Every structure is written in C-alpha cells, then in structure tokens.
Amino acid sequence: MSMSPSPSADRPPVPARPAYAERLDLPWWLWLTGLVAAALLAVEIWMGGSGARAWLPFVVLLPVTAVGLWCLGRIRVAVVDGELRVDDARLPVRFVADVVPLDSSGRREVLGVGADPLAFVVQRPWVGGAVQVVLDDPADPTPFWVVSSRHPVELAEAVLTARDAARPTDRTAGEPG
Fold it and tell me: How many domains does the chain fold into?
C-alpha cells in the first residue's frame, strides 16, 4: 500500500494576516514639488545647449528624482506574527511595556531637545502622528521606539492587542505541567 504525502506538506506556511499595516508614502504634492524641482534643474543645466547637453539632464535627473522620492515613501509599518515591523526592523511584542499614540506636538516633544539618543526613530515629517513604543528588555539599551503613523491610535491598539495575546503563552511556557 503506497502512501502519498499530504497536499499540505508541500505548501509553504501561509503568513498571518497583519493586525495593522500601513505604508508611509509621500503625499502627491511632495511628488509634484520634487519632480518640478528636478525639471527646473534640468532646464538650468540645458540652457539651450545642443547635443547631449540638451537631453542628458532630463534623462538623468527626472528618473533619479523619481527613484529617490519612491525610496522616501517605501517604509511599511505592520503588526504581524507577534512583531512590530518597521521597514526591516522587527520588534517582538513581548518586549513592549507600553505604547503611547502621539500627535504632532507630542512627537515634537519626544524627539525635541531632551530626546534620548538611544531611541530607535523612524520619523517622516509629512506624517503628522506617531507612536512611542516603550520597551521592557533589560538586554537592549534602546529605551523606546518612535514610529510615524497616520493612524497612531489604531497602531497602538494593534501592538497592545498583539502583546496581550502573546503574554499568556509566555507565562505558561516556563511553568511545570
């Protein structure tokens, strides 16, 4: 009797659906401003010249500017699989002590003159809100994270919900059965 492997054994695990996800992309007016500035600079370089000087500034400056603007707006913030993910950085939610949603004045206060130089900061000036994620990890010198968010209250709730869901399993893991 031959046994065939189950169909689910060949499939990779399905990633969990994010509890929260957003992309900190640029607003349309920053795209417009950046591309107009690049076009004006290309015109300044061109200044009626002929040959390569007529087309090279446009061929180089406009695509380079577009790629630069895209890179500025590629940051993704998500709460998924028990982690807060900000671009390439990952923070397991079990190390989160508290999360504070910040408006623009609160963000300015946290990142102002008395800011902690060891804090992890992903800040986008065109995004008004942010969250401050206070850490509880004695092995990590980072006291907190400050992450820009268009919806800081929803992000804070998602992180706290994920943390609370992860904590009961952490407490029972070390207890004898």
Answer: 2
CB atoms within 10 A of CB 169: 10
- pTM attached to this predicted model: 0.75
CB 145 within 8 A of CB 69: no
Buried b / exposed e along 77-108 (16+ C-beta atoms within 10 A) = bbbbebbbbbeeeebebebbeebebbeeebbe
Is residue 39 one of the residues assigned to a domain?
A: yes
Residues 52, 110, single domain; the answer is no
Residue 2 has pLDDT above 50, yes or no: no
pLDDT of residue 15: 56
Angle ∠(83,103,137) on CA atoms, nearest 5: 35
Using CA atoms, how far apart are residues 20 and 80, in angstroms rounded to an integer? 7
Question: Which three-class secondary structure state does DSSP give residue 47?
Answer: coil
Does residue 12 fall inside a structural domain?
Answer: no
Is 30 within a domain? yes
Q: Which amino acid is at 33?
A: T
Q: Amino acid letter at 101?
A: P
* pLDDT at residue 3 in the model: 47
Write phi, then psi, for 164 (nearest 5 degrees).
-65, -35
How many C-beta neighbours within 10 Å does residue 14 have?
Answer: 6
